[in-house]
Amino acid sequence: MKALLILPLLMVLLSCNKFNYKRIFSDPQIYSNTVHELNNVVMGNNFTPVVASRNYAYANIAAYEIIAASDTNHYRSLAGQLNGLLTTPKPIKGKDINFGYAAVLAFCKVGESVTFPAGSMKTYTDSLHNVAIASGMPSATIKDSEAFASTMALAIMEWSKTDNYQRTRNAVKYTVKDTDGRWVPTPPSYADAVEPHWKEIRPMVMTDASQYRVLPPPAFNIKDTTSTYYHEVTLIKNTVSRLTVEQANIADFWDDNPGRLNQSGHFSFVSKKFSPPGHWMSITGIGAKKIHADFNLTVCAYTKTAIALFDAFIECWAAKYQYNTARPETVINRYLDVNWRPHLQTPPFPEYTCGHCVISAAAAETLSSVYGDNIAYQDTSELEFGIGVRKFTSFRQAASETALSRFYGGIHFLNSCRVSAACGKQLGTSIVSRLEMKINK
Question: Which residues of 318-349 are buried (b: 16+ CB within 10 A; e: fewer)?
């Protein structure tokens, strides 16, 4: 596991006398490494994208509150800005806290505990503790830093328990109604609908799940060849049937299916990748490196983006289970061509609106607000899954390509992609305007 690699890597740096603990734990790369480690844990535990967004949001907020407490001249606490978060702990006067070390520890403690059983990141946090010792951090500083990390993590965890997540674990399952135009499970796994009650989760910044209510999708009408619905269906059918190499590459790059079911004869297996929010967490780290962001600004960027992802999923899932629309695969197979298949594997939830489109547009707004507009970068997020690099001129351009990818993949109608991207942009812009995090003097 990558957690086991961090200590040897940093020990090499230490042996070269290039780093001591103050430099190690103020290096933004160690924070990006820590987020990547949570990505691995999320992927290994087969969490859905919506549940994953909850882990990223609370974990990053815990880390951000530590850097906000340490740098009050440049960062504002999110207490009083996020729904239900009234106050957060402050460092005790006289304690010798290394705030970078405390931030990554708080991230790990919350990240593994929001959904996972405690201990999922223990190997990694143990390695951080060993690095602190090996890099010369005084024992009193280690003790005080770890104590403050635990205090902050506990406070954020207590707040997280009031967001209705546990109550939705016992909610009534989605009822499948096989009527024209309504969502039903799709091949190959025919899995149950994912998180039909996610709209009941408390948002971070939005007032409620219906704040950015979208217009209804085109009415189901597959028999009238002049209807908008028929046009949408035939457009995606014909496009996917003759994808160009570039269109297929775009679809594959943004697939982000965290659990693709593969079948070969009588055998089946699941291949894993980062989910959509995990992909955008990776892009956040790439952006930080691109602009040479310092540790605190990096934490700020991750946190603002994670908050946007969290609220975007709530808004999108409210729309999904309000309209309950069938996937293109279902409609085309039933009415037009029984042998047609989408390029990507259809995920198990209603079609309208598009989750990846909403969250990507929202994330692009938060990243642009922190790092700046028109930051050109190479997205290397998918290399570890055998998918090549793509280049983008800005975060917004990447989000626009994401929206097209779901159409090219054959899993979302073009209208859905456009409406969803516009909604995500509106939501992201609102979050940027409402959250006061970085103090620009």
Answer: bbbbbbbbbbbbbbbbeeeeeebebbbbbbbb
- CATH architecture, domain 3-163: Orthogonal Bundle (1.10)
| Distance (Å, whole) CA 416 – CA 414 | 5
Separation of alpha carbons 357 and 403, rounded Å: 5
Tens digit of each residue's pLDDT (9 = 90 or more) over 32-91:
999 999 999 998 888 999 999 999 999 999 999 999 999 999 999 999 999 999 999 999
Among residues 163, 159, 157, the alpha carbon closest in space to that of 86 is found at 159
Residue intervals of the chain classified under CATH 1.10.606.20 are 3-163, 177-434
Record: fold of 177-434: Vanadium-containing Chloroperoxidase; domain 2 (1.10.606)
390-392 and 267-271: which strand pairing? unpaired
For residues 337 and 436, what is the distance between their CA atoms, to the nearest angstrom?
52
- Where helices occur in 200-294 by DSSP H, the ranges are 228-241, 245-253, 276-291
Q: Tell me the pLDDT tens digit for each residue of 3-39.
A: 444 555 455 445 544 569 999 999 999 999 999 999 9
Answer yes or no: are the C-beta atoms of 37 and 7 closer than 8 Å: no
- Exposure string over 388-405, b if 16+ CB within 10 A, otherwise e: eebebebbbebbbbbbbb
- What sections of 263-386 are H helices per DSSP? 276-291, 295-323, 328-335, 355-371
Contact between 57 and 307 (Cβ < 8 Å): yes
The pTM assigned to this predicted structure is 0.95
